[in-house]
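To make the argument concrete, we let one protein speak, a sequence paired with a row of structure tokens, as a model reads it:
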Amino acid sequence: MQNATNDGVQSVDEVWVKSLVARSVLRAADAMTAPGVEPSARLGTLMECHGALLAARGPGCELSFADFRHQVRGDPSRLLPEGVPGWDVDELRAVDADGHVTEAAFDIDAEQRLVLRVLQKNSRGAGLMSARDLEDEVAQETAFAQLCKAGNQKIYESGRTDLIRYPAGPVSELSELRLPPLVADLYEDIPYASTYRNWWFACPVCRWPMRVALRRESGHEIGAVACWHKPHQEMGATYRFRPVTGIVPPELLPEPPPPPPQDREAVLWPDMEAIPEAKPVERYKALVRGVWRYTCVPGLAELALRDQLVERGLKVELWPALDAYDLCVHVGRKRARKKEKLRVDVKDYTSGTALAQLIHAQEGDSGGAEWLVVPDHRATQVPLLSGVGEKYDLKVTTASEFGEMVCEQSGVAWS
């Protein structure tokens, strides 16, 4: 089998296998950890997932139902058949120590299915993919279609910006965003795993509800709060609190902060000074997880890069032609008669391998971007993606490196 770093495209059957395994593990993990599920329904889902996993593994790869249940809480890569490489995610687990389905498991499922859908659209081995393996359009694609429906660039920019800026909030505030009805329906009750005694906390980076867990440490019960998105945790979105009784809301205490970023990366570093306050679950809603993860999270990087470049005097178009790509950056000194326009797509994938597969499947960027920019916390993916992108004349770099480069070409300082 070929992989994403070879000159060829990773074989479709391998992509299908990895997608089916990721989907089976995620559904099984959710069934095992979700509260309030009837035992019969839980067992039925686990048996269905076990059958799908056996189909993906093929004959000769035996796995008992008991072993499957045990391994669901471990590394999903261990459930792949021999010869299929695992995911390039450090310490990958489907369920964390607090009994929550991890963001990484959610991501590898979503990212692998996206690659599979692109291959199907390109008619590459579509016969291997059943309707059951390929789900209906996911929520973020529904949001995109509805925002594009009017065919108006300003309406699209306004609606998508609102989704990114307001992934959660009071119903009274969200109702004023003037989003299309089907997009407004993507706001749901605050997720159970993000609540404590009818309170929840918004991540200071993305403003989506953080996960909450109670732990025993040194004989005492301690509350732990952290953003579901691991990079935001590493920026400092991790806290503790003392459990409370009655109607008094808990107060968060921040964990020790991470070391400050270097000068170039400090430009895009979020403000972590304010400590999130408890908000009531009642009359508050949040976007469904898929829209938050694949519209809001990368959208933060898009808006931050745009805002910092505009602040330095550069002209930047946001989501040109109804999101053909993410940014059109006009580069050049002020007195130049003609400035170069750089087409940029911003991607925030947990798996660099899955993103490399997507580049191969699309034969570059689907919207015609010539630059692929990843957030600074994905810098380790740049060598792999650069090697893949070179075949399609797609240059790859981090957000801060790109910002510094275009500012230098335009005669202004980035940091």
